[in-house]
Design a protein that fits this description.
heterodimer, A: about 375 residues, mainly alpha, 3-stranded antiparallel β-sheet, 10 helices, B: about 525 residues, 18 helices, about 70% helix, about 5% strand
Chain lengths: ~375, ~525
């Protein structure tokens, strides 16, 4: 029922651009990201420096682009959450709960998230046409940023209206189903992300504990002439080596988790939200249409023509949105499955590799330990 | 003369006792067994020193000369040769240092002539006497290699109800040692029985410098939970932890050659019903008395400033202190590790559940299936983490905890040595006072009191010598015990660490299997 993989890959990879977020440097209170991009046919590489504010500006421009049919039906690629200060690894370990990728690891993870955002934007056939994108990637300075006014997409407004409109019954089964499954998927994905990131945190804690254990073993070694003590000291040192292996292993395991499934789950948790927002916009439009119809029906004769116009406009918009939405939804699910597959393969691949490496080392160390004791 | 007969019989009658005491009808090879019995039956005699190779009246010349040479040494092997009972003790320790002591063993086992020359002159050079041929020695070695005593503590069962309930453990012994009447025994014991055994052993042997393995600790909280009938994982873990440590405790006791000879140990393993060890109850009168004794001990320990003639003891005591600190640090890091692993295990379980939910609400069938497979993999991984946490705990943490307790016993043996030193010093002081008193009386010319003073002086002179011998004997034992302890410790650690590494390896090998099985599932999503 789903399309073959080949088409997906080409769709996904097709982006006019090769974008990389290569670096992050602290500049006072904020971080500055270095973005290198290259338009595929040409050889020119652009390098710009952007702050998170600039990303927000870009996002706003995308949301408010004029003259795009069915703009509100687009599932906009989600922007990563605003970073706090990047916690150093050790700080992260002491936090009880991680809410977003921005808190988990250092800046590399976050850069990757930003990079993915830009990739998604440039790969979107409609969004790439927005001149803001080109400005963002190429121009040294961005145009004067108007205060990013959050219009209809203001979360606060949404929250109020949501309660009213969210459960508004849909006229189209396809969309009703989509809304329902979105609701469940969003909740489950969020739960999965949270639990997964907790796993990563605990793995990092274990790595640290192994490190402490390894160091503590060294501390007790004195210089003893006593043969029994000497044998004991050698055993401690060997055990210390083993613990270093275990520590490295856990660090790698945590890294693997984060880079593969962690990244994917987190991104798609945000994507679910983006889809939800789009569906909500459409539902709002649906409510508008139904209101317009009602008004038309109740309109006094001299207002009838005006109402008729409003109704026609609303209908048209609604159809455009629905049309775009349908395409977007199908595309979104294809992408989601593909990305999930990739993440799961990478997860099991990397964990398998790490476990194999660890086994080899442990086997050797066990043999060495046994030999040590036989002496 | 009257005084002599009160004293513990001098060495040579002992060797005759040995021969005429075929308590269990053993053969010569097992002579160490009933020799052992003598030591400990000897203990039940009045607390006068176990032997006095220097009876003040009528010593044979050879004994005097050799024993006087002994007083110079302090804890060397050759000392033990001349001190018969503890030569026998050395023989028990033959199991640890086979070659040396086996050669000595035949010397003690078959004293061909009851004259003093045998025990006194020969062994300081460790030359095996012609009593046993080489073949006989080899035979002995083989028989000793076949020495087997396996102990298992299993089947914890709750007996009774409510606050009077207790856990009964099955203690199974399997042995081919001739000193036991049967080859296997199975008895039921409760925790206080183990404590009772420790009390008895400690009373008898600690003061002689033996390191008596300490039993597991009491835990009012743990036991209350069990009594109340809470069937949760923490009380299950508590019982398992206790069972394992009781097993290790018994194994340590029986692997100590001298303690194994104690009839209390045998009774513990063999007898169906043991009298309830009441003195171990926490708040009983005996318990309270013990607390007070410990307190006074601690105080007196602080005030004994020993004039150490042998650096060895001082060095070793320092080593023990630093080792204790080291082990405590290790124990705390391991406990942290155990906790984190348990946390990881529960986090993985929760994640597995959320993945399962995700999978079941997923429309794409292939992805849905892959996600439920992932949930299964994560469940298996959770079990791995749980198991490894247990291994961390039961192998490593308990190992460290055991040795922290054992080190306390080691320190105890050093303390007892100090006490015997103190007793010797005190006797010397008293003797000095008595001498001064005699001098005063002489000067004051009171002949009636003079005789009494002279009597007191000779009494105290013999006490001084006796206590000095005690001190040397205890020092030798302490030294021996310490060396044995170090060896045992190295072996114990080696075995446990190998076991631990093997669990680590196994765990990762399992992990490889799980991911290998999952990979094709992931690839199948399309």
């Amino acid at each position: 029922m789903m399309d073959a993989g080949i088409e997906d890959n080409s769709n996904h990879n097709f982006s006019g651009y090769d974008v990389r977020v290569t670096d992050a440097a602290q500049n006072g209170d904020t971080f500055v990201y270095v973005i290198k991009s290259q338009q595929i046919p040409s050889d020119t590489e652009y390098r710009v420096e952007r702050e998170f504010e600039d990303f927000e500006w870009l996002h706003h421009c995308l949301l408010t682009q004029e003259g795009v049919t069915g703009l509100h039906g687009i599932i906009f690629p989600p922007l990563p959450a605003k970073p706090g200060t990047f916690l150093s690894n050790s700080e992260a370990k002491t936090k009880k709960k991680i809410e977003s990728l921005a808190m988990v690891d250092d800046w590399q993870m976050y850069c990757r998230a930003l990079e993915e955002y830009l990739h998604l934007v440039t790969a979107h056939t409609v969004l790439i046409k927005n001149p803001a994108v080109h400005s963002f990637l190429k121009h040294r300075e961005l145009p004067i940023k108007t205060k990013v006014k959050k219009g209809i997409f203001n979360k606060l407004t949404q929250a109020v209206e949501e309660l009213r409109k969210e459960h508004h019954k849909d006229i189209d089964d396809f969309f009703q189903n989509e809304r329902d499954s979105n609701l469940t998927l969003t909740a489950f994905t969020k739960a999965a992300v949270e639990k997964f990131l907790e796993i990563v945190l605990t793995e990092q804690k274990i790595a640290i504990a192994c490190g402490h254990f390894s160091t503590a073993l060294h501390l007790g070694i004195g210089q003893d002439d006593d043969p029994a003590d000497y044998a004991f000291a050698k055993m401690c040192l060997k055990l210390s080596e083993v613990l270093d292996t275990v520590k490295k292993n856990f660090e790698k395991v945590a890294e693997n988790d984060l880079n593969t499934l962690g990244f994917n789950l987190e991104l798609h948790s945000r994507f679910q939200d983006a889809e939800k927002e789009m569906l909500f916009r459409r539902t709002c439009k649906l409510v508008d249409v139904e209101t317009a119809n009602k008004n038309l029906g109740q309109a006094k004769p001299h207002k009838k023509a005006a109402m008729e116009d409003i109704k026609k406009a609303a209908d048209k918009e609604f159809d455009e949105i629905s049309g775009m939405a349908k395409v977007e939804i199908q595309r979104y699910h294809r992408e989601r499955v593909r990305a999930f597959q990739k993440a799961l393969i990478e997860l099991s691949d990397s964990q398998l590799q790490t476990a194999r490496e660890c086994c080899v080392e442990l086997k050797q160390q066990l043999a060495e330990f046994k030999q040590l004791c036989a002496e | 003369m009257a005084d002599d007969s009160e004293r513990v019989p001098p060495p040579f009658p002992e060797s005759e006792q040995r021969e005429t005491d075929p308590a269990d009808g053993e053969s010569d090879e097992d002579s160490d067994d009933f020799e052992g019995e003598d030591i400990f039956t000897g203990n039940s005699q009045p607390s006068e020193p176990k032997k006095d190779p220097l009876p003040p009246a009528a010593p044979t010349t050879s004994t005097t000369t050799t024993t006087s040479s002994n007083t110079k040494t302090n804890g060397l092997h050759s000392d033990d040769e001349e001190q018969d009972i503890f030569a026998e003790a050395t023989v028990e320790l033959a199991l640890d240092s086979p070659l040396n002591n086996r050669k000595r063993e035949p010397a003690q086992a078959k004293p061909s002539a009851p004259g003093p020359s045998l025990t006194v002159t020969g062994p300081s050079t460790l030359k095996p006497p012609p009593a046993k041929t080489f073949e006989e020695l080899e035979e002995e070695e083989e028989k000793e290699d076949a020495f087997e005593l396996n102990i298992a503590v299993t089947n914890p069962e709750k007996v009774g109800d409510g606050m009077n309930a207790y856990m009964a453990y099955k203690v199974s012994t399997q042995t081919n040692l001739p000193m036991f009447k049967c080859k296997t025994y199975t008895v039921k014991r409760r925790f206080s029985d183990f404590l009772g055994l420790y009390e008895k052993l400690s009373e008898k042997h600690s003061q002689n410098g033996y390191i008596v393995p300490p039993p597991p600790e009491k835990s009012i909280l743990g036991m209350t939970k069990v009594k109340v009938g809470k069937e949760d994982s923490s009380s299950v873990e508590f019982v398992e932890r206790r069972r394992a440590s009781l097993e290790r405790y018994l194994q340590r006791v029986v692997s100590h050659p001298s303690l194994l000879q104690d009839p209390d140990v045998r009774e513990f393993l063999e007898k169906d019903e043991l009298p309830r060890a009441v003195s171990t109850q926490a708040l009983s009168g005996a318990g309270f008395l013990k607390m007070i004794n410990r307190a006074t001990d601690a105080v007196s320990k602080m005030t004994i400033k020993m004039n150490e003639s042998d650096i060895w003891f001082e060095e070793k005591l320092l080593e023990v202190e630093s080792e204790d600190q080291h082990l405590r640090k290790l124990l705390s890091v391991v406990e942290t590790l155990v906790n984190h692993r348990k946390e990881l295990s529960s986090n993985t379980a929760m994640f597995a559940k959320s993945v399962a939910m995700l999978g079941s609400s997923e429309d794409n069938t292939a992805l849905s299936r892959a996600l439920s497979q992932l949930a299964e993999v994560e469940d298996k991984i959770e079990q791995l983490h749980q198991d490894q946490a247990c291994n961390d705990f039961f192998i490593l943490a308990e190992l460290f905890a055991d040795y922290i307790r054992l080190l306390t016993a080691v320190r105890g043996s050093f303390d007892h040595r100090m006490k015997t030193w103190q007793r010797w010093q005190d006797a010397q002081t008293t003797l000095q006072k008595k001498r001064e008193n005699e001098a005063k009386l002489l000067w004051a010319n009171k002949p009636d009191k003079l005789q009494q003073a002279k009597d007191e002086i000779s009494e105290w002179e013999s006490k001084v010598t006796q206590y000095e011998r005690d001190f040397e004997r205890v020092s030798a034992t302490v030294r021996k015990e310490f060396l044995r302890f170090e060896k045992e410790k190295a072996m114990d650690f080696k075995n446990q660490l190998v076991r631990y590494l093997e669990t680590l390896l196994h765990s990762h090998q399992q992990l490889i299997k799980y991911w290998e099985a999952f990979l094709p599932e992931a690839k199948a999503i399309a």
